TrEMBL record, chain A:
Pfam families, per the entry: UQ_con
Active site per the UniProt annotation: 86 (glycyl thioester intermediate)
Organism (species): Mycteria americana (Wood stork)
Region of interest: Disordered: 151-197
Designated name of the protein: Ubiquitin-conjugating enzyme E2 T
TrEMBL record, chain B:
Protein name: RING-type E3 ubiquitin transferase
GO molecular function: ubiquitin protein ligase activity; zinc ion binding
Pfam families membership: RNF6_N (PF25914), zf-RING_2 (PF13639)
Matching InterPro entries: RING_finger_E3_ligase (IPR051834), RNF6/12_N (IPR058896), Znf_RING (IPR001841), Znf_RING/FYVE/PHD (IPR013083)
Family statement: Belongs to the RNF12 family.
Family matches, as PANTHER family: E3 UBIQUITIN-PROTEIN LIGASE RLIM, SI:CH211-59O9.10
Gene3D superfamilies: Zinc/RING finger domain, C3HC4 (zinc finger)
């Protein structure tokens, strides 16, 4: 019903049926500290990037939204250099749109969607946002560069911001190769689910 | 899927201890769940309203049971049956909690509270007349910036006592009681006679009821009339006070207000007052919010400070006092003419040909007028907010303390913020302010110049003393936040003065927008409730993602979405929309339905 059991259910759902391009797991067995990965969607400057996120579940979850931030640097109008994400479903009403019927899976999907469709009118990074609006080419270039620099899987091991997933490091690396191979498929599926949502 | 690998791995690596503790937690949650479902409706309400349910997963069933017995045996808490009978706030006994106080304001509409923090003492009185729908809230704060040096009686420590001076409360409330409109008569809509009392008060000589000028918390709150005779303040030292009128961020509000305080370190006597007086239209409520910056000279007789003297503020003479006096009353047809409303008087008096500036804004049905006028070196700010009475009627007279009032208050407070904002931009001598006017510009040099210099000089003299008080304020703000079970208000740590936090809490704590947040207990209890029966199709509560089991209590929102009672109640206590469809739960509330 409340946090613990709900989280347990959510995690098992995330494990059984993760949204396309998204993985989520417990960090060091902490129930309220999760990690997630979002694959950069095809036809976005984040393509082939693997973005790590930190999910901190507050005590009052689900009456409060989880706190989600990017661990991997990302060049995006709505995500700042600390990884904080400007997204309405991550905030409480009346400003935000969080509600208890949402869950971590839907939030991650929303973030995935935000990556594909930045919202320059509600910018967190003003300069990136104006770049996105008025100089899309440059924006794409920069975003791709960042993706390669910070989010490409080859560099994952040496990334400074990367949290140690110690024991599962190798397995996740393998996993991401798999995901990369499947990349195109996944992103098509993603698009579909975006339309639906 | 490949992802299951890593998750499983994580699970497998889970240490035994952690797993065990999580299992325990799950067990407790399960037990909690069971316990809540087995409660009778009355018991459930009792526990919920007394905030005894604790956190699921942490509280044990035994503890819950013990609490239930305790609350049943003990005398009913004042907040367990609000709105009926409960009288004035003196019974908010464990008065250290502002939250309690606010609750009881909302519930009974009649409270008096006071306290002292650091070198500031505050007192807040609010009362509601259920018959006439009048509501009055007044807040008076004395800031004794001197106390570090000259006034040993006031405690100067930043670490504020949690008990915000209840000892003062009784005596003060005693003094208040005779003036309060019999709160016991609470028959919604039955009578209007009580409004007469207000009328009388308003008709009484303006200066007769002036509150004492000492910094003692026992100061009388002044009544409607006195507003312009109060507050001899250095006009410019006051003007820096401002807050952001968009109220989009309380944090902003706080910091700016604080900043304003900091920059106005003169000893000043500030009176902020809000009145409601008769309006032209019988169908409207009018709230006049007038913030006399300085007293017009003819009125100055009552106190020693004239505008001129306030510029050369003599330190040590007068502790700064901030009074926020708000009255909201319903206006009956015909009343207006006899009343000769403050609004009109203030305005007419200050409407000298040269120096009147009026801004108007309209938002959400609340019309605001802001005017600034200046005469003989005295600046008067008047902000009038008009609130259509239907907003009040919607909720019914019986709920004068409910959301409607809160919305109004918020509007008023927003107006106040705007007012301050204007005042601020005014003092900045920034002609690019809203509707810049030649007259404004013309008047700036006189007042702005003189005031600024005096401001600076006093700045130096009382600066560090002020810091102390400020610190105290911030501590208390933080403390209050910790207590704020709603968790919705973030008091800026860096030096929010208690009184302003209080005002903000009272008026703005609901949200940053103009929409009210949670529902009241009555509103929640009025929603349909049923027991889940076996015949029902299998369904899941989307708050806890758990399937309903037989015997579960479900609540059905107007949009037909159902949830566990305890799940949705918690959500609705802080929010007002359906978690699934986001439709407003209160159809007729003063909030526009989200469709």
């Amino acid at each position: 019903m409340q946090r613990a059991s709900r989280l347990k259910r959510e995690l098992s759902l995330l494990t059984m049926e993760p949204p396309p391009g998204i993985t989520c797991w417990q960090n060091e067995n902490q129930l309220d500290d999760l990690r997630a990965q979002i694959l950069g969607g095809a036809d976005t400057p984040y393509e082939k990037g693997i973005f790590n996120l930190e999910i901190v579940v507050p005590e009052r979850y689900p009456f409060e939204p989880p706190k989600i931030r990017f661990l991997t640097p990302i060049y995006h109008p709505n995500i700042d250099s600390a990884g904080r994400i400007c997204l309405d479903v991550l905030k409480l009403p009346p400003k935000g749109a969080w509600r208890p019927s949402l869950n971590i899976s839907t939030l991650l999907t929303s973030i995935q969607l935000l990556m594909a469709e930045p919202n320059p009118d509600d910018p967190l990074m003003a300069d990136i946002s104006s770049e996105y609006k008025y100089n899309r080419q440059l924006f794409l270039l920069n975003a791709k560069e960042w993706t390669e620099k910070y989010a490409s899987q080859q560099k994952r091991a040496s990334k400074p911001l990367e949290e140690k997933v110690n024991q599962s490091e190798t397995s996740t690396a393998n996993e991401s190769t798999v995901q990369k191979r499947k990349g195109s498929n996944i992103s098509k599926k993603e698009k579909k689910s975006r339309l639906e949502s | 899927m490949e992802s299951s690998d890593s998750s499983d791995k994580g699970n497998i690596d889970q240490s035994e201890a952690q797993r065990q503790s999580q299992l325990d937690r799950l067990d407790r949650e399960e037990a909690f769940y069971q316990f809540v479902n087995n409660l009778s409706e009355e018991d459930y309400r009792l526990m919920r309203d007394n905030n005894l349910l604790g956190t699921p997963g942490e509280i044990t069933e035994e503890e819950l049971l013990r609490r239930l017995h305790q609350v049943k045996e003990g005398p009913p808490q004042q907040n367990s049956d609000e709105n009926r009978g409960a009288e004035s706030a003196e019974d908010v006994s464990n008065g250290d909690s502002i939250i309690d106080w606010l609750n009881s304001v909302r519930q009974t509409g009649n409270t008096t509270r006071s306290g002292q923090r650091g070198n500031q003492s505050w007192r807040a009185v609010s009362r509601t007349n259920p018959n006439s729908g009048d509501f009055r809230f007044s807040l008076e704060i004395n800031v004794n910036r001197n106390n570090g040096n000259t006034n040993p009686e006031t405690e100067n420590e930043p670490s504020v006592e949690p008990s915000s001076g209840e000892d003062l409360e009784n005596s003060q409330s005693d003094s208040e009681i005779p003036r309060s409109e019999s709160p016991s008569v609470r028959q919604p809509g039955s009578e209007r006679s009580t409004s007469e009392e207000l009328t009388t008060e308003e008709a009484s000589p303006p200066r007769g009821q002036r509150r004492a000028r000492s910094r003692s918390p026992e100061q009388r709150r002044t009544r409607a009339r006195t507003d312009r005779s109060r507050s001899p303040i250095n006009p410019v030292s006051e003007t820096p006070r401002r807050s952001h009128h968009n109220t989009s961020s309380q944090t902003l509000d706080h910091s700016s207000v604080n900043e304003a305080e900091g920059s106005s370190r003169t000893r000043q006597h500030v009176t902020l007052r809000q009145h409601t007086v008769g309006t032209e239209m019988p169908s409207e409520n009018a709230v006049l919010f007038s913030t006399p910056e300085t007293r017009p000279v003819p009125q100055a007789a009552g106190s020693s400070e004239t505008n001129g003297t306030s510029e050369s503020t003599t330190p040590g003479q007068r502790p700064p006092t901030i009074v926020l006096d708000l009255q909201v009353r319903r206006v009956r047809p015909g009343e207006y003419r006899q009343r000769d409303s403050i609004a009109n008087r203030t305005r007419s008096r200050s409407q000298t040909p040269n120096n009147t500036v009026t801004y108007e804004s309209e938002r959400g049905g609340f019309r605001r007028t802001f005017s600034r006028s200046e005469r003989a070196g005295v600046r008067t700010y008047v902000s009038t907010i008009r609130i259509p009475i239907r907003r009040i009627l919607n909720t019914g007279l019986s709920e004068t303390t409910s959301v409607a009032i809160q919305t109004m208050l918020r509007q008023i407070m927003t107006g106040f913020g705007e007012l301050s904002y204007f005042m601020y931009s005014d003092s900045d001598a920034d002609p690019s302010g809203p509707t810049p006017n030649q007259n404004v510009d013309a008047s700036e040099p006189q007042n702005g110049g003189g005031g600024t210099s005096s401001n600076e000089s006093t700045d130096v003299s009382s600066g560090e003393v002020y810091e102390g008080g400020n610190e105290g304020g911030s501590t208390s703000g933080a403390r209050r936040e910790g207590r704020n079970t709603r968790g919705s208000v973030t008091f800026e740590e860096s030096g929010s003065l208690p009184f302003l936090s209080l005002a903000q809490f009272f008026l703005l704590n609901e949200d940053d927008d103009d929409q009210p947040r949670g529902l009241t207990k009555e509103q929640i209890d009025n929603l349909a409730m049923r027991n889940f029966g076996e015949s029902d199709a299998l369904k899941t509560c989307s708050v806890c993602i758990t399937e309903y089991t037989e015997g579960n209590k479900l609540r059905k929102l107007p949009c037909s979405h159902e949830y566990h009672v305890h799940c949705i109640d918690r959500w609705l206590s802080e929010n007002s929309t359906c978690p699934i469809c986001r439709r407003a739960v209160l159809a007729s509330g003063n909030r526009e339905s989200v469709v």
